[in-house]
Amino acid sequence: MTEKNYVLTPEQEAAVAHQLQVIRRGVAEIVPEEDLVAKLRRSVATGQPLRIKLGLDPTAPDIHLGHTVVLQKIRQLQDLGHVAHLVIGNFTGQIGDPTDKSETRRQLSPEEVQENAKTYVAQIFKVLDETKTEVVYNADWLAPLTFADVVRLASTLTVARMLEREDFHKRFAENRPIHIHEFFYPLMQAYDSVHLHTDIELGGTDQKFNLLMGRTLQREFGQEQQVALMMPLLEGLDGVHKMSKSLGNYIGVAEDPHTMFGKAMSIPDELMPRYFELVSEVPLDELVRIQAGLRDGALHPRDAKMRLASELVRRFHGEEASRQAVARWQQVFQAGGLPEDIPEATVATPRVWIVELLVQLGLAASRSEARRFVEQGGVRLDGERVDDVNAEIDVRDGMVIQVGKRRFVRCRLNA
């Protein structure tokens, strides 16, 4: 990277040091960090904000807390005065990122991508500063490329380099198909960085190949290369696998406050320091105290979870929703009471099989799921656990059915 050697005042040097401290929080890898320092020095010296890029292919309509790890870092960069480009992959999304995929992804239609993008953007601005974010769509510059332009892009990369990707290498070794259009995905998202003259691109550690491809292509186009800033992948509620909707171990940012709060209270104790670092807004000095307290036992994990859960609900639903979620949790799970706002549902017959009852009330999506809830000891009738999967239930008007820790329904009989 060619960079002017700016001479900074002591105050400016302190500003650079502060920005580095904030940026390093929770980061897995910065490639290369010396380029980041040089860019920050230039920004502080000239007053020009850095251009931050996050590429998103909206392959599903909702985002979860795992997605907010990168968003949180971008918000920190925005608070430091930098500007974010949120690249909606309405062109690349029609191919789909092959990262970690064992087979070719289904190609989405432009209409599917556009519809998913609407809810993506609305949810993302619960974290990002909208006034410092420019939302752009990469079809605006990728769609007009000629075939000659695409050939030029393809000439910058060898097949051997592409096969360095773990997912491609594995599929090739196992004689599973790799379609040519999948090779173009990293090139196209890298061209986004060229078009935007990106200074810093963010992504998870699983995106390293894609992020470094942006540096490669910028060099080919004679541009100053971007810095690749990679965030860890957040483990889900099972404490083992990364957060994923398909695994059911997620906290969705669009979930209702009580569900969000309850799920946060089920985070494994050993992950609390990591969650506070990656998805909370607590200042660095307080973060250090929380993590130290959790290590030496001065802070009970339950109290830390209450703090984190209330903060998450506050961010995504507001102060009043956070207060109500805390009060409900204390009433139901600490005082042993029932929530005041239990939804009601009508039961057609006064005597019904427990499995069928759970399905009727919408507490289970299928009979097999209902059976599993009962077998796992997660079903209670007016506080009494149901252990028999074959039980016939005499439904009483006003009876409360509970599944798990957070789901309640009050039964009403037809008159």
Would you kindly provide a written description of the structure presented here, covering whatever features stand out?
- With 415 residues, this protein is of the alpha/beta class.
- It has 17 helices and 13 strands.
- Strand 3, helix 4 (110-124) and strand 4 form a beta-alpha-beta unit.
- Helix 12 runs antiparallel to helix 13 and helix 12 (272-279) runs parallel beside helix 14.
Which terms would index this structure?
single chain, 415 residues, alpha/beta, six-stranded mixed sheet, five-stranded mixed sheet, 17 helices, 13% strand
β content, as a range?
5-15%
> Which structural class is indicated by helix and strand composition?
alpha/beta
Distance between the termini: 78 Å
| Average pLDDT reading | 89
Indicate the radius of gyration in whole angstroms: 25 Å
Strand tally is: 13
